[in-house]
Amino acid sequence: MAGLSFIVGIIGNVISILVFASPIKTFARVVKKKSTESFEGVPYITTLLSTSLWTFYGILNPGALLVMTVNAAGAMLQLSYVTIFLIYAPKEKKFKSMKLVALLNVGFFGTVIAVTLIALHGNLRLIFVGIICACLTLGMYASPLAVMRTVVKTRSVKYMPFLLSFFLFLNAGIWSTYALLVKDFFVGVPNFIGLVLGTVQLILYTKYKNKSRSEKSDKDVEKEEEGSAHLAREGIEMQGCEEEGDNQTNTNSRTLRKGSSLPTPSIIRQYSVGKFSRTLSVGSYEQHCDWYLDDENDHHGDLEGGKNGGS
């Protein structure tokens, strides 16, 4: 049984570290752009507190070596994220984040260690720290409840990424199994609840993913129909403009033939008439095409700007 729990614990370490390492790409972009953009530092600050406390719990519990190792690695990663965030965050956001770090990661964490080592003895130490760790983990697993409510309300899984839900489900399942094998109540209870919530997330994803695609397909069909109708109107307008242009040309030719015996107008009048006739010769279709092309170029530029801005 000990060998099986060790294998499960190693698998749990690998999966948890992958979850902890998932923001690396985000913070690489922060360093590259030297800006935190719209990112918030609170999730990383609270996760730093959680991993630090679980590391302390692993130190207190002789049989929780694998709990200590994974959370120590997670704490180092979260510390790196928080440090990068504080370096590149705007002044106001940086000040608020620093206050939160001082309150949670220094004040609260330091108080827990001091109370545990000074005021408590024996098993009370492990129970005190275990309860706090379990509550923090429950908060982490309960955080997607708002997203699940949005999925049910909008009938769309747009705001619930499958991979994140799957890895949290897998992580909770592995640590629930580990806790059952080693009989660790504080590790088992929050992870079992996380397993239930993760299962619900996957069920919701399976239920609404096809509806999301169907709604997307309906929108695409509507756009195609609108585009076809738009092109049909363009063709009618173009044909009308061409017929109008032909009639205008014939009329101008007859007018010129009739006026060939008239005196030659002055240079200024020739210029004015020529300019006026060129203005009238621009049909609605050509004006619409010019506007459409300019609008398409602007839209294409906006798309490129958005794409680059989001890379």
UniProtKB/TrEMBL annotation:
Compartments it resides in: Cell membrane; Endomembrane system
Residue segments, region Disordered: 215-263
Topological type in the membrane: Multi-pass membrane protein
Keywords carried by this UniProt record: Membrane, Repeat, Sugar transport, Transmembrane, Transmembrane helix, Transport
Stored InterPro entries: SWEET, SWEET_rpt
Residue spans crossing the bilayer: 6-27, 39-59, 65-88, 100-120, 126-147, 159-179, 185-206
An example Gene Ontology biological process: protein homooligomerization
Recorded GO CC terms: endomembrane system; plasma membrane
Superkingdom of the organism of origin: Eukaryota
Molecular-function annotations in GO: sugar transmembrane transporter activity
Biased composition (Basic and acidic residues): 215-236
Family: Belongs to the SWEET sugar transporter family.
Function recorded in the entry: Mediates both low-affinity uptake and efflux of sugar across the membrane.
Name of the protein in question: Bidirectional sugar transporter SWEET
